[in-house]
Design a protein that fits this description.
789 residues; single chain; elongated; 20 strands; alpha+beta; 6-stranded mixed barrel
Length: 789
C-alpha cells in the first residue's frame, strides 16, 4: 500500500520535474567527468603495465658505435643484470609509395631464429621474416597504417648508398615503440615519415658489416639492483666503443612520453572532477536548500498531522536523492560512452596489443558520495529550520524581511528607477545572502565555461609559438653523419632552395649538481632567421658568442639560473666533459634543448665547423622537385617539413586534447544552463505569492515578469565577471598541470573564450527568461494568494 508521503513524493516529482531534471544534469556532468578522467587514466596505466610486463620491456638501454659480441657477455656479468640482448639498429632513408619526401626507417634487428628476449614483438598481422631472405621486414603498425602498407607491400631503402627493395611480411608492435618518436631532438611523432622496421639479425648484420658485433644493447635488472650503479658500470664498459650513454627506461623516449601522459591524466583526473564536483556540490546545496524552503507551509501541515521531524526530513531527503540517483545513472552512462570515445582516440597513437576501457568503480562512488553529501546537507538544513517552528507558525508563509533603506536608497539613487526597478532593488538589498548565492551560482557556471574552452586558446598559442615564431624554415635536412662545412654550398644549389642555415647537433648529458638530463645541444647561427630563439615575452634572443642558452623547462628541471656553470658530457667521440656558463634562457613549448653559437660549440668539441643538418627556405613551387632529389642523396638521413610537423601535432596531441576539451565545453555549457534555469524557477516558486499580490494591485503580467527577471539579470550581470576571474584561476591550475618535459601548454585565455562564456550565460538566461515569463503569465492568482490559514 502506498503511503501518503510516498504519494506526495510522486506528486512533487511531477510538479518539480524541471528543477529535478536540472539538478540531475548538474550531478550527471560531475559524475561523468569522474568516469571519463579516471577511466582514461586507469585504462592507460593498466594497458601499459600489462604490455611492459608480458613483452619484457627492458630496464636499461644503450646505443654505441660498434662493439664485439664479447662485450655483451661482459655486460651480462655486471652485478645486478638479469637479461641482456644485443642488437643492430640503423636508421636508413626510405622511399615510401605516394609519399613525396623521403622517410626515415629505423631498422632494428631481431634474432635470426625465434623471438627477442627483451622488447618482444607482438605480431598484429602477417608473419615473421624468413632468416634466409635478405629483404623481408616487419613494419610498425603506426607507420604501416599511416602509409597504407600491409603484408605484401614493398618500399625502397637507401642502404649503404644503394637502393634496395624491402618487402613487408608482417605488421607488428613493440613495447619499445608504443609512441613512435624518432628522437634526436625530434619530440613529435610523424608516423608517415618515421617508422620502425624489424629485420633478422643475420641479414642486418651482414648488410652493415656488423657480424659478431652490435651497436645497441638493452637489459633487465635483477630484483633489488641499484639502477644508477648498473648504468654507471655499463656506461664504463661501452665508452671505449663509442657508447652514447646508458639510460634507464624512465628516459626511453616512448616510455617517457607515456609517463608524462599518465602523470597529466592522474593530476587532471583530480583537478577537473574536483572543479566540476565542487561546483555541483555547491549548487546542489544551495538549490535544494532554497527548494525545500519553499515547502515551509507543507512541512507545518505535516507536523500538525503528527509526522515527526525525522519522517519529514527523510521524505524531503528522498526527493533530493531521486534527483541524485537520476543524475548518477545519467552520469555513469554518459561517462562510459564518452570515456570509450576518449579511449579510442588514445588507441590511435598509443599502440598496445589490447587497450580495453577500464571503469573505475571507486572513483565513481566517491563522486556520487560527494554529490549525495551536498544533497543531504542542502535538504536537511532547510527541513531542520522549518521543523524547528511550531506547526501553526510554520504553516504561515515566511514573513517578509523588515524594511530598511539599503545603501543605494540612502544615496537617493533609487529615484532614478521606475517603480518596478525600485522593487527589484529592494528585493536584492533585503536578501543579500540569497542574492549573493544566486550570483555565485552564475559565477561558477561562467567559470567552468572558461575552464572548458581555454585549452583551445592554449593550443593555438602553442602552435603559433612553435611553428610560426620559432620554426620558420620550410624544410629541415639531417645528415647520417656530420659533414664538412662545404656541404652548405651543395645544399644551396639544390632545386628550389632559397636560404640555407646549417646547424650542428650533438647528444649530451647536461648536469647541474645532482640533476641531469639527456638532450641535444644545437649549434646554430647567431643571426639565424629560419630557427629563432625567443624569450618568455616572445622577443627575439640573439645567441651570445660564448656560453649556453637553455630552454625554460630544462632550466627549471636542472634548477639552472643565468651565470651557473653547466657540466656537459658529450655522448659521442671521446665522451669529453666540458663546462660552460649558462648565458640565458629561451622559451620553447616543445622538448628540452640547449643552444650555443655554432662556432662556440665547435670550439667546445675541439673540431672544425661541421654540419649535422640545415634549415632550408624553399620555393613552394619547387618543393616536390627538391624532395625527389633528396631521396637520391645517400648522405641525407631524413628531412622534415614544417607543415608536416604541424599536421602531425594536430593529428596527435592537438586531437587528443581537442576531444577532451570538446567534452568539457559541452559539459560546462550543460551545467551553466541547468544552474541558471534552476535559479530562476526557484525564485519564481519563492515569489509566486508576492507576484500575485502585485497583479492584484494593478501591475500587468509583463511588469511582474520583468520584476522577477530583472533580479535574475542583475544577479547574472554581477556573477558573470566574477566567474570570468574564477575561470582564469581554474585555467591556471590546469595549465600548470600541462607542463610536461615533452611539451608545455601555455596559459592563454583569449577574449574569444570570455566572450563564449558570456554568450552561453546570456543565452541560458534568455531561454530561462522566456520559460519564466510564460509561467508568470499563466500564474493562478487565487492559488498563489492562498495562505493556508
Amino acid at each position: 500500500m502506498v503511503k501518503a508521503l510516498d504519494r506526495k513524493l510522486f506528486r512533487d516529482l511531477a510538479r518539480l520535474r524541471g528543477q529535478v531534471l536540472a539538478i540531475a544534469v548538474v550531478v550527471a556532468v560531475g559524475v561523468a567527468t569522474v568516469v571519463i578522467t579516471h577511466g582514461s587514466y586507469r585504462s592507460l596505466l593498466l594497458a601499459r603495465d600489462a604490455y611492459f610486463t608480458s613483452y619484457r620491456f627492458a630496464d636499461i638501454f644503450a646505443h654505441l658505435v660498434r662493439a664485439p659480441e664479447a662485450i655483451g657477455t661482459r655486460v651480462a656479468a655486471v652485478p645486478g643484470v638479469a637479461t641482456v640482448e644485443t642488437r643492430v639498429v640503423v636508421d636508413v632513408l626510405l622511399d615510401v609509395p605516394d609519399l613525396p619526401e623521403p622517410a626515415t626507417g629505423r631498422l632494428v634487428s631481431i634474432p635470426a631464429r625465434g623471438r627477442p628476449a627483451l622488447n618482444d614483438i607482438y605480431l598484429r598481422s602477417g608473419r615473421f621474416p624468413d632468416p634466409n631472405s635478405g629483404r623481408e621486414v616487419l613494419a610498425s603498425e603506426a607507420f604501416a597504417e599511416a602509409n597504407h602498407l600491409r603484408p605484401g607491400s614493398r618500399l625502397a631503402a637507401i642502404i649503404n648508398g644503394r637502393r634496395q627493395m624491402l618487402e613487408i611480411v608482417g605488421v607488428a608492435l613493440s613495447p619499445e615503440f608504443v609512441y613512435e618518436i624518432q628522437g634526436g631532438g625530434t619530440w613529435l611523432p610523424d608516423n608517415r615519415r618515421f617508422g620502425i622496421l624489424w629485420m633478422r639479425r643475420n641479414v642486418l648484420a651482414a648488410t652493415f658489416d656488423m657480424r659478431g658485433a652490435f651497436n645497441d644493447v638493452s637489459l633487465t635488472l635483477a630484483p633489488g639492483s641499484d639502477t644508477a650503479d648498473v648504468i654507471a658500470r655499463v656506461d664504463r664498459l661501452l665508452a671505449p666503443y663509442g657508447g652514447l650513454g646508458a639510460y634507464g627506461h624512465d628516459e626511453q623516449i616512448s616510455a617517457r612520453f607515456l609517463r608524462d601522459e599518465l602523470a597529466q591524466n592522474r593530476v587532471s583526473g583530480t583537478i577537473v572532477p574536483a572543479i566540476f564536483l565542487g561546483v555541483a556540490a555547491f549548487l546542489l546545496n544551495v538549490v535544494l536548500a532554497r527548494l525545500m524552503a519553499t515547502e515551509r507551509t507543507q512541512i507545518g501541515v505535516l507536523k500538525a498531522f503528527g509526522y515527526t521531524d525525522f519522517t519529514i526530513g527523510l521524505h524531503y531527503l528522498e526527493l533530493a536523492l531521486v534527483a541524485l540517483a537520476v543524475g548518477a545513472v545519467l552520469g555513469i552512462g554518459l561517462g562510459v560512452w564518452l570515456g570509450r570515445i576518449v579511449n579510442a582516440t588514445y588507441a590511435e597513437f598509443y599502440r598496445f596489443p589490447s587497450f580495453p576501457y577500464r571503469f573505475d568503480v571507486m572513483a565513481v562512488l566517491i563522486g556520487i558520495g560527494i554529490s549525495a553529501a551536498a544533497a543531504v546537507v542542502g535538504a536537511i538544513g532547510a527541513v531542520r529550520r522549518a521543523s524547528a517552528l511550531p506547526p501553526a507558525e510554520a504553516m504561515r508563509p515566511e514573513p517578509p524581511p523588515h524594511y530598511r533603506p539599503g545603501p543605494i536608497e540612502r544615496l537617493g539613487l533609487h529615484r532614478l528607477l521606475s517603480p518596478a526597478g525600485r522593487i527589484v532593488l529592494r528585493n536584492l538589498e533585503r536578501r543579500p545572502l540569497k542574492a549573493s548565492l544566486s550570483a555565485l551560482g552564475v559565477a561558477f557556471a561562467a567559470a567552468i565555461l572558461v575552464v572548458g574552452y581555454f585549452s583551445f586558446d592554449s593550443l593555438e598559442a602553442l602552435i603559433d609559438l612553435q611553428f610560426r615564431q620559432v620554426q620558420r624554415d620550410d624544410l629541415t635536412v639531417v645528415f647520417a653523419q656530420p659533414r664538412p662545412a662545404g656541404v652548405v654550398y651543395d645544399l644551396a644549389h639544390l632545386p628550389g632552395v632559397m636560404r640555407v642555415e646549417p646547424f650542428r647537433a650533438v647528444p649530451a648529458r647536461v648536469r647541474i649538481g645532482h640533476r641531469s638530463r639527456r638532450v641535444a645541444i644545437s649549434g646554430v647561427l647567431p643571426d639565424g632567421r629560419l630557427r629563432r630563439l625567443i624569450d618568455a615575452r616572445h622577443h627575439e634572443v640573439r645567441l651570445p658568442s660564448g656560453g649556453a642558452v637553455l630552454t625554460t623547462k630544462l632550466a627549471e628541471v636542472l634548477g639552472a639560473r643565468t651565470g651557473d656553470t653547466l657540466t656537459i658530457e658529450i655522448l659521442e667521440g671521446t665522451r669529453a666533459v666540458r663546462r660552460v656558463a649558462v648565458a640565458g634562457v629561451v622559451d620553447e613549448p616543445i622538448g628540452l634543448s640547449v643552444y650555443m653559437e655554432r662556432s662556440a660549440l665547435a670550439h667546445l668539441l675541439h673540431e672544425g665547423l661541421t654540419v649535422s643538418g640545415a634549415y632550408l627556405a624553399v620555393d613552394p613551387a619547387r618543393m616536390d622537385r627538391l624532395l625527389t632529389r633528396l631521396k637520391e642523396l645517400p648522405a641525407v638521413a631524413g628531412s622534415a617539413r614544417r607543415g608536416a610537423a604541424l599536421s602531425s601535432f594536430n593529428d596527435t596531441i592537438g586531437r587528443s586534447i581537442g576531444v577532451v576539451t570538446t567534452i568539457l565545453v559541452l559539459s560546462a555549457s550543460a551545467i551553466a544552463v541547468a544552474v541558471i534555469y534552476n535559479s530562476a524557477r526557484i525564485a519564481l516558486s519563492e515569489r509566486a505569492r508576492e507576484l500575485a499580490s502585485l497583479r492584484v494591485l494593478g501591475f500587468t503580467r509583463d511588469e511582474t515578469a520583468r520584476m522577477l527577471l530583472g533580479e535574475q539579470m542583475v544577479q547574472a550581470a554581477i556573477g558573470t565577471p566574477i566567474g570570468l576571474v574564477l575561470g582564469y584561476g581554474f585555467s591556471w591550475a590546469l595549465a600548470m598541470n600541462y607542463q610536461w618535459e615533452m611539451f608545455r601548454i601555455p596559459l592563454v585565455v583569449s577574449s574569444r573564450t570570455y566572450a563564449f562564456a558570456v554568450i552561453v550565460v546570456a543565452l541560458a538566461a534568455l531561454a530561462t527568461a522566456a520559460v519564466v515569463r510564460r509561467r508568470v503569465h499563466r500564474l493562478d492568482l487565487v492559488s498563489a494568494l492562498k495562505t493556508g490559514e
